[in-house]
């Protein structure tokens, strides 16, 4: 039997990049700016497979009318 993957926080809880996960702790809030996972990176030579997913943190959400 396969073991469930994930953090155990629930299936609907999104993962975060290491920088954004640490930025949730007091004193590390400025690490959101250090996150480089702001876009999906496709696997070269594949259709629809990702090498690295975009961090789903709200700090990376596009701002209407301009850049982040």
How do the helices and strands line up, and which of them pair or pack?
Layout (H helix, E strand, L loop, with lengths): L17 H6 L17 E2 L7 E3 L16
Antiparallel strand pairs: 1-2
Care to describe what's here?
This protein is mostly loops and 68 residues long. It has 1 helix and 2 strands; from the N terminus they run H-E-E. The protein has one helix at residues 18-23, and strands at 41-42, 50-52. It has a two-stranded antiparallel ribbon with strand order 1-2.
Would you identify the regions where 5 or more consecutive residues have pLDDT less than 50? 1-11
Annotation field: number of helices: 1
Using the CA coordinates, give the radius of gyration. 15 Å
Largest sheet: number of strands, sense, barrel closure = 2 strands, antiparallel
List keywords for this structure.
elongated; little secondary structure; 1 helix; single chain; 7% strand; two-stranded antiparallel ribbon; 2 strands; 68 residues; 9% helix
Put the structure in a nutshell:
The chain is low in regular secondary structure and 68 residues long. Helix content is 9%, strand content 7%. The protein is built from 1 helix and 2 strands; from the N terminus they run H-E-E.
